[in-house]
Amino acid sequence: MDTLVAMRCAIYTRISRDLTGEQVGADRQLKECRELADSGGHELVATYRDNDVSAYSGRARPDFEKLLDAMAAGDFSVLIVWHIDRLYRSMKDLERIIDVAEGGGIQIQTVSSGDLDLSTSAGRMIGRILGSVARQESEHHAERRKLANKEHALAGRWCSTGSRPFGYDKTGVPLEPEATMLRHAATDVLAGKSLHAVAREWNASGVTTVRGAQWTNLHVRRVLTNARLAALRVHRGEIIGQGAWEPIIDEGIWRGLWAFLRDPERRNAVAFERRHMLSGIARCGLCKGPLYVARPHGRDRPAAYVCRRPGAHVGRNQAALDGYVERVVLGYLERHGLGADLRRGQDGVDFDGLRAEREAKATTKDQLATLLRTGVLDMAAVERESAVLTAEIDAIDRRLADAVASPPALALLAGEDDPAALDTDKLVERWLAASPDLRGKIVNSLFEVVVNPVRKGVRNFDPDFVEINWR
């Protein structure tokens, strides 16, 4: 130690996991490294710290890079670390340190694992052995962590790492008002409300995402398709069983919602929010294409629903067509109300049976890899069976989605009230307060609107040239 007296030295500290954000581990390392520097009589010229960065994670270590630059520049001749594995666990990093230390005569001292002289062949050999041991320890630790994570998942335990999911606190307890917002959104989306409308309402409420951002279609879709909402445990992207926490959304409703939001045929429709009631819903009587609102040039010409196909097959005054269709809807509500219609399509759906069937097919699909590995099936047979099972699982998901989403939109007029208890005046009031997007979805769930060409000379709106085809 006498030869190192008064030498310029630097200290490097690192802690790979800082759960509190207080850098306690790195501070403890720094204190003991300072004591070692003082006991050796060294002049401390610099300290370097990388907190919450593993040396074997592949992530950049900013201060480690600065340390190498300072070593190469000859800023100090002694490097002090708490343990050699705080400096490197990657053989690649060790070789970089050797290249610099060998040329500059850097001495490495540690608090708890002895000194290391990388300027000699024996020292470099020891360094490489220690690096190999550290790598094996890191890999073994990763294997144990993966096994522990899988055991936790199979036991249905709440995963508390990372950010909390919207709707729950860090321990898995439902959090208000987020849980209520999610339940309402699930019902509303299945009933036909767009993700855009949900995002707008959530932003207006002042409740942000977990990270404090404003809501978008993508954010809403992501939180609604989180399996934790139904108390389902996910491991490595796969649902592996029930969780031991309280669900926010019933599993049957959630699975239907998940399939509903992932259905490519519904994907754009769920996110899209129309500005005019019949846009994309009313159909051309000639080509069956959708009609959209156009605003002709000139102040005195009103907006109209028109066919965009070449030839401009049909067009109809927007206000007049909307008014006519609205009267048809209100007449339907006066005659039938909501109660009976809201139950349509759900009677006789065995949600538990469908879920059990889906789980059995998913398990069979998972077992195909074992059959391939043991030689029971060849690759071609596995691919065929996998395709069949995937199609059957998708079909079950569609049945669940159709069951929980039938009929769309009408449920939104009922809100939290008993549909059978709503009188005509209340229904009319809620219809008038509904957005064009919701009105359009209600229309589309009840009947098809077909706009036919009019005879020559007909200038005013005539309902005889509009077909209402009930579904």
Automatic annotation (TrEMBL):
One of its GO terms (molecular function) is DNA binding. PROSITE patterns: RECOMBINASE_DNA_BIND (PS51737), RECOMBINASES_3 (PS51736). Residues 8-156 form the Resolvase/invertase-type recombinase catalytic domain. Pfam families: Recombinase (PF07508), Resolvase (PF00239). It comes from the Bacteria. Residues 160-267 form the Recombinase domain. This is Recombinase family protein. It comes from Mycolicibacter heraklionensis.
